[in-house]
Structures are given as structure tokens and as C-alpha cells.
Amino acid sequence: MLKKIIKSYDYTLVLAVFLLCSFGLVMVYSASMVIASAPKFGENPSFFFDRQKMALLVGSVALFVTMIIPYKIYASKKILLFIVLGSVAMLLLVFVVGHTANNAQSWIMVGARGIQPSEFTKLSVIIYLAAVYSKKQAYINQFGIAVMPPIIFTLVICMTVAIQPDYGTAFIIGLIALSIILCSGMGLKSIGKLILLGLVTAVLLSPILYILSDGIISEGRMGRFLGYMNPFEDEKNGYQLVNSYIALGAGGWTGLGLGQSIQKFNYLPEAHTDFIMAVIAEELGLFGVMFVLLLLAYVVFRGFQIARKCTDPFGSLLAIGISSMIAIQTFINLGGLTGLIPITGVTLPFISYGGSSLLLLMASMGILINVSMFTNYQSTYRTKEKKPVNQPARTYPKNYVSYR
What residues have CB less than 8 Å from 33, skipping those under 6 apart? Predict the structure, then answer.
């Protein structure tokens, strides 16, 4: 049985993840070596590289652990309660002992390292919604008791993250939740009610948001919208986006060469985090960009394939949530650096510098690979097992005599 289980793992998905992480590790070093040479980082060009390498090692352990733990254990009441309460407690702890970085109090410092609880909340929400909606399949269209309670919980989580303030992560959590809700099996009537409720809520809250707009939208966040609208005319707010355009255009087909980026010399802020794809385009050209995009597309595509093949509602919704998380985060990151949407400060999955983000993604991929393993095992081996045929009991005439 163990041999069959080992054969059922999706090793192409494992390979794609580690190719992305390895490539990201190289690009983090290339993109951060200039800024890491500053005195506040000890003039160590490999400062961010070393941290990302350690995060990758810990993340690899998390991936292999979640690969071998049966995913159905997360749906048990005790484990699910622990995940939900632990996630909420960590979010609330941020307001007590949180560390502020980039105008957001969303970090908890553990020694010299920072942990971002809102990153791990993404996976908690995925597990919670997948578990709840999979158990409500028999009455999924009963709006009051099946649809709304999980949505109310998700909204509370999003609001808690938003007031840190971290609007980008809150927005991503909301979109991930929406993808699971739409795929939960509820009918069009329930979806229509949900949309109508959302519109009514938006209309009712709009006056309050307008009154509190000065406190909600800071000058820096407003600058991102203004820079997005007219990056070349607004020199101050459009500076980052314009330099991203320069990096994207300078690379051409083959790039300037690995390590040869000019924009990372303090021209392009956050070159190793939010704008790492711009450095990839400048150094490795279109071929480097396509390498990353094809691998990310494969991971997302395989995730949705796993969701489609999985016959267990919980496993299917887990796969949808994890795949949607990677797809949404990739779109928002690339949309920001290309000017398609305003800059949100969202990292590129598996590539950008960020320990919390990488650890979350690796643990999530381990769960997805475990769902894939159980799905492959069931479809490959369970269907081949010969089921005993229930033969009718043999009957004998009344005058039958056995001579044995």
C-alpha cells in the first residue's frame, strides 16, 4: 500500500514549486544585493538572500510535512477550531505587540525576524470555508443557515486585516473566499441574493466611508492611485511605476544579463519584493518572464485539475482555494508593476522576498499535493480492486441428500 501511495504523488507539481523557489532565490540575491550593501544591513550583499534561503528551508519542511498528513484531518472539529481560533488570536495580537513596517502594523517580531499573521490567515480562511461548505452540501441553498454564517466570519477577518491597515491582503482574502463560495455548489438564486446583499451593503456603507475617507486613505495610498492614473505626469507618485516600465522595456527578448540590472541601483524601490518581476524582465528579458509565468500557470492549472477530479467536496474546495490564492496574488502583483491596476504591495508567489509569504505558500502546496495524492490513489488503485460479488444463496430441494 505504501508503494502505491508513493506512486500517487504528483511529482511534476513538486518539481514546478521547487523550480520557482530556486529561481526566486537567485533573483532575490540579484535584486537585493545593492540595497543589502547599505550600512543598516551590515553591508552584507547576501543579507536578504540568506534570510530567504532559511525561509525556503523551513518552508520545504512544511511542504513535506503537509504532503504526508491526510488533508481530511483539517476538517475535524478540534483541528478546525484550533486553526480558526489561532488565526484570530494572532490577528488580534498584532494590535497589542505588532511592529509597524511600510505604514502597516501587521508584523509580530520574534527576535530579529518578523511574522505576518495576515499571510497565514489566507490558508486558515481557505480551510475553514472548504470545511464548512463541504459539510453543508445537503442544504447549501438555505441562505440563512448555510450561506451567510461563513461569509460573516470572512468579512470580520477581512475587516480585522484591513484596519492594520493592510488593504491588499484583505482584498486577496476576500477574493479567495469569493472563489470558494462561487464553487461551493450553491444555486444561481443564492448567488443572486449574495450579489444583491453585497450591493445594498456597499450603498449603505458608502456615506460612512466617505466621511472617514481621510483616516482610511492616507496620503501615501492616495498617491498610488494618482500615480497609476498619470505616472508620467505625476513625477512623485508615478516614480515607482515609471521605473518599472523602464526595467520592463530595457530587457527586450534576452535581457541585459543576470545581475546586470540598472534599476536595482536605488532607482526602483522594493526591487526584491513587489517589483522583482521588473528586475527579471530587465536582466533575463522576455524568456525569463515567460519561464516564471509558465511555471505559475502550470501550478494553478494543476490545482484546478485536482479540484475537478477530486470526488470529496472538502478536498475539491481546498484545491480551488489554494489555486485561486496563487492566481489572484500573481495577477495583482503583475497588474501593479505593469500599470494595469494600482500598486498594492503584493508579492509575487514563490519568487519575491518574504519569509511569511513563502512559508504559507509551501505549506499550502503540501496540502494541495496531498489532495492530489489521495485523488490519484483512489482513481488509479481503488477502481482496479476487485470487489466481491454477492452471489445468491444456493437452494436445494427438500429431498436433497449430501453424500460427502
Answer: 45, 46, 49, 259, 264
DSSP 244: H
Helix (H, G, I), strand (E, B) or coil at 344: coil
Q: How many CB atoms lie within 10 A of CB 231?
A: 20
Give the per-residue pLDDT at 329: 94
Distance of alpha carbon 400 from alpha carbon 103, whole angstroms: 93
193-243 confidence digits (pLDDT tens): 888 877 887 777 667 655 655 555 655 566 666 666 777 777 777 788 888
pLDDT reported for residue 103: 65
Select from 56, 27, 70 the least CA-distant residue to 273. Answer: 27
Task: Write down the pTM of the prediction.
Answer: 0.88
**3-class state of residue 232 by DSSP:** coil
Residue 299: closest CA among 269, 278, 270, 329: 329
Q: What φ, ψ does residue 278 adopt, rounded to 5°? A: -65, -40
Written as one string, the DSSP assignment of 22-87 is HHHHHHHHHHHTTGGGSGGGTT-TTHHHHHHHHHHHHHHHHHHHHHHS-GGGGGSHHHHHHHHHHH
Which grid coordinates belong to 166? Answer: 493592510
* pLDDT tens figures, 328-337: 999 999 998 8
